[in-house]
Amino acid sequence: MSNSEAPATSPAATAARSGLSRAGLLWGFLGVLAFSFTLPFTRIAVATLDPLFVGAGRAVVAAALAAIVLAVTRTGLPARRLWPRILVVAAGVVVGFPFLTSFALQTAPAAHGAVVIGLLPAATAAVAVLRGRERPSRLFWLASLAGAAAVVGFTVLSSGGFGGLHLSDLLLVGAVIAAAVGYAEGGLLAREIGSWQVICWALVAASPVMLVLTGISLAQHPPVAPVEGWLSFGYVCLFSMFLGFFAWYRGLGIGPIASVSQIQLVQPVLTILWAALLLGEPLTVLTVVGALAVIACAALAVRSRVSRTPAPRR
Fold it and tell me: How many independent structural domains does the chain possess?
């Protein structure tokens, strides 16, 4: 047997898979770091700007940047068969998540938003199982569910409880579903057309609708905001809607998607930290203890075995 035909269980193959897994986790964490500022900065932006403008306008700005990148790199159009999947990504992460969180954070504190967003890793893993033929181990699911429970538990306690079900909670649940579908589908597409290409084409695909909605907002509510409002809007345009996805989809593309998605368990912890620093929301010992529990669950989940079911031969 030649070296090129070494069995998949050889030390070389195992080391190669381990290296890819670490790279996926690193890229995933960089994406999560960028996303962890999204709720606090969105909260600041919608305090003085129309949430419709924040939700649609950031997609318009990001789409303009995406068009420039695609033009400079002379990237060809994706195959026609891929466009329905690109539209799914656009519906989830360009339209659904930004709009739903923008309207939810008009009334919900950023830390409260982190409660529901903390369910996103488990939701993304579930979509990856259904869509991506991945098979997480039982230990993976136990760690993921424990992490989600830890996120909900300590953030609810640290924010004083839910205080009853509100419309903002339903909007955030919808945001989780939209993002989970967009993340999982985008991760699969990244393996075919590249990580940054996925978000660029998704932004371009959604741009006609986003332009119309931004125009409606501008006509009804001419934007007037202090410097911090515009800086916050600029962040969600450049990082939350654009550059963060370069790293995130690269990490998901390397995969396994179910494992890399669990890195997001640390996002609510980071979000609460930024909310404390930027918005003055309370940061307690309970948050620190909860953060350690969440990180432990995330570490266990990402180290748990996730296999991929081979695609059926045609």
Answer: 1
Task: Give Cβ neighbours of residue 245 (< 8 Å, ≥ 6 apart).
Answer: 31, 93, 186, 195, 196, 198, 199
Contact 32, 159 (CB under 8 A): no
Q: Report pLDDT digits (tens) over 189-222.
A: 998 999 899 999 999 999 999 999 999 999 999 9
Q: Is 10 inside a domain boundary?
A: no
pLDDT tens string 239-278: 999 999 999 999 988 878 877 887 887 888 888 889 888 8
Q: Please state the φ and ψ torsions of residue 135, each to the nearest 5 degrees.
A: -125, 85
Range of the domain at 217: 28-308
Distance from the first to the final alpha carbon of the chain: 27
**Cα(143)–Cα(88) distance, rounded to whole angstroms?**
29
CA distance 6 to 10: 7
Q: How far apart are CA 174 and CA 53, in angstroms?
A: 19
Encoded amino acid at 302, one letter: V
The one-letter amino acid code at 91 reads A
CA-CA distance, 24 to 181, in Å (whole number)? 19
CA gap 210, 60 in Å, rounded: 6
